Amino acid sequence: xxxxxxxxxxxxxxxxxxxxxxxxxxxxxxxxxxxxxxxxxxxxxxxxxxxxxxxxxxxxxxxxxxxxxxxxxxxxxxxxxxxxxxxxxxxxxxxxxxxxxxxxxxxxxxxxxxxxxxxxxxxxxxxxxxxxxxxxxxxxxxxxxxxxxxxxxxxxxxxxxxxxxxxxxxxxxxxxxxxxxxxxxxxxxxxxxxxxxxxxxxxxxxxxxxxxxx
Length: 214
Ligand SMILES: Nc1ncnc2c1ncn2[C@@H]1O[C@H](COP(=O)(O)OP(=O)(O)OP(=O)(O)O)[C@@H](O)[C@H]1O
Ligand SMILES: [Mg+2]
Fold this sequence. Notes:
By secondary structure, the protein is α/β, with parallel strands linked by helices. Helix content is 43%, strand content 19%. It has an eight-stranded mixed β-sheet with strand order 4-3-2-5-1-6-7-8, sandwiched between helices.
């Protein structure tokens, strides 16, 4: 099983959006995926509860033992959504489990400052030093017309980790969150622009593990 952790201690950076959409992409690729919700506010669990039954199945798990079972074989993927303020032992625990870490970063000085601190912190971990965890940065809520988008790009390029996607600011994510969907569950006419933006991310994910991607 591959474990994909989505983390950034900055509140509202886009973790749950990234985790739910990554889980939706994997499920759409016929991968058996469980979305583990480490956030006591349970946004990912509530998203899963809103998911319409006809869409590709995603299992659920919370540390207090609540489960949404996937029928049949064991899962191939665990996607972990982590809370804001993740630090100390909880951060260590999440990092111990991670094969892949995705870090969403929004274009603001506050977000960039918190992200720098976070990436400095995890760079001290043995597994990160040894390159055992594949770490990818995701520019979230990007509007390419803005100065802050350029500043975010420059900031993210300053790290040794790859910048694996730029995802635009759009109400599509807000509606998907409301409806228990990922952008990959939308019809082509509504999802295509965002599928395109996810492509470098899903290709990168697929390279970290053998997921059939097209
Ligand atoms: N690309 C986007 N376009 C538009 N809205 C977005 C985008 N990404 C996230 N949002 C919205 O921004 C808000 C915060 O995003 P999200 O909940 O994913 O962040 P988070 O890091 O999980 O927050 P928390 O730290 O509170 O768990 C949500 O309302 C979400 O729908
Ligand atoms: Mg969240």
